[in-house]
Amino acid sequence: EDLVSKSIAPVKKEYLLPPSLSVITKEKKSKRQLKRERQQEQKSVLHICPAIAKTGSVDSCQYLNKCRFSHDLEAFQAQKPADLPGNCPFCPYGLACRFFGTHKKKSSEVNGLNKDVQKLLWKNRMNFHRADSQLKLIGVNSRPLKKAKDMSLKLNSREKKSIDFRGKLYLAPLTTVGNLPFRRICKVLGADITCGEMAMGTNLLQGQASEWALLRRHSSEDLFGVQICGAYPDTIARTVELIDQECTVDFIDLNMGCPIDIVVNKGAGSALLLKPMRMKNIIQVACGTVDKPVTVKVRTGYLEGRNRIDPLIADINHWGASALTIHGRSRQQRYSKLADWDYIYQCARKAPDILQVLGNGDIFSYSDWNKHTSECPELSTCMIARGALIKPWIFTEIKEQRHWDISSGERFSVLKDFVHHGLEHWGSDTKGVETTRHFLLEWLSYTYRYVPVGLLDVIPQRLNWRPPSYFGRNDLETLMASESAADWIRISEMLLGKVPVGFTFSPKHKSNVYDRAENG
């Protein structure tokens, strides 16, 4: 009871380790230094021109001496790392592939960026007739566009499609770690609904390939949405029209709850909670532009103790949203303290019957899920976020109503599947291998927080419990419990081979760490 009150996981005494010495962390490199290193790395002979790698001919590159990649085929083959064991999952990389000679499968992903559309976006020649028509209706000025092809008007509002979230297990859109390979893992383990990582509307409208990659969908994602973020109605209107035209999605989610400074400072994310009239314009214009269901994700408010969402519940429905997800924390709280589910219940009970309300925050076991869905039947379902990052088999636990004492071997098999999906998604050349490794390490910066059921004196584990130093029931379980990035790298080497010389890793996202004990 004393440990639980201090938010420390009550690990059985026989598994506890003595406190270890603090780890000395290396100084972070500046952005300029990192950029210079990337440029130098790109000039390396290991970065062979994709056209040459695909054909095996140095004459196949159209850019010749102006190409930013290496054309030294002989030097590349001499320095290319040894191939990885196994078969290539999917490959357009030719000689650069780390599974060279085993190319069989075709990609099963959709929602790629069409090159012709990208060029129109680059030149600002894309027409957004439906979006601009809706902006005029609500009296919002839009920026002028150059000549473009005309597009058809939107479907009548009564033709708007609907989607039923009730009782379905919903994997939250998760920045960085909620990538396509991770979502495939969650689908196999029982997730019903998946959503792409948050994409910035301005970046999509500029044709940035890296942002469009966040919209990609795997064929296994049978109920799939994308989440977009923007500060102004014209940005959102044009983004939803572009997605409706170019992508295959079941719904579009508007992020109005992101707490990250770089997003909030631009007036997007949770900054919109301070501007209800702009919220209204954004939701109205998005819903009026496309026939797909438009959902909204918010926090309880901007400042702690000043909840702002409950007075807007009926309005959000009136503005056209099909569903509303409420994360039970304010922007000021970020990920500290426990989610306020009482307030989520209050909002769900205020909502009109036609508006589906979803709760989000701290669900980490089937008992958490049961508690929230039984205490508030008005909730359509619950969204699962960090709980799925730490243990993606939470979906299996909910469906089978059990606390799964998953073995280290079973957990390692899940990581193997992620790596396979990652090589299929990011590529099986050297760059794809290292990209897969990077995202695997980002995920491992969450998974170490899981304490096996068999090691706990009290179950289920709570999301805010910090595990003490402990060892597992075998060496692999002990390794997976390590909070050291060096051990995460070691796990990655078990799956992807040795890291490059000078490789370092530091987790990107702040929500993978624990808050102070007094914050719960």
UniProtKB/TrEMBL annotation:
GO biological processes: mRNA processing
Catalytic reaction(s) noted: 5,6-dihydrouridine(47) in tRNA + NADP(+) = uridine(47) in tRNA + NADPH + H(+); 5,6-dihydrouridine(47) in tRNA + NAD(+) = uridine(47) in tRNA + NADH + H(+); a 5,6-dihydrouridine in mRNA + NADP(+) = a uridine in mRNA + NADPH + H(+); a 5,6-dihydrouridine in mRNA + NAD(+) = a uridine in mRNA + NADH + H(+)
Domain C3H1-type: start-end pairs: 48-74
Zinc finger (C3H1-type): 48-74
Cofactor(s) essential for the protein: FMN
The enzyme's E.C. designation: 1.3.1.-
Keyword terms: Flavoprotein, FMN, Metal-binding, mRNA processing, NAD, NADP, Oxidoreductase, Repeat, tRNA processing, Zinc, Zinc-finger
Molecular-function annotations in GO: flavin adenine dinucleotide binding; mRNA dihydrouridine synthase activity; RNA binding; tRNA-dihydrouridine47 synthase activity; zinc ion binding
Cross-referenced PANTHER family: TRNA-DIHYDROURIDINE(47) SYNTHASE [NAD(P)(+)]-LIKE
Function, as annotated: Catalyzes the synthesis of dihydrouridine, a modified base found in the D-loop of most tRNAs. Specifically modifies U47 in cytoplasmic tRNAs. Catalyzes the synthesis of dihydrouridine in some mRNAs, thereby affecting their translation.
Family per record: Belongs to the dus family. Dus3 subfamily.
Protein name from the UniProt record: tRNA-dihydrouridine(47) synthase [NAD(P)(+)]
Organism whose genome encodes this protein: Sarcandra glabra
Lineage of the organism: Eukaryota, Viridiplantae, Streptophyta, Embryophyta, Tracheophyta
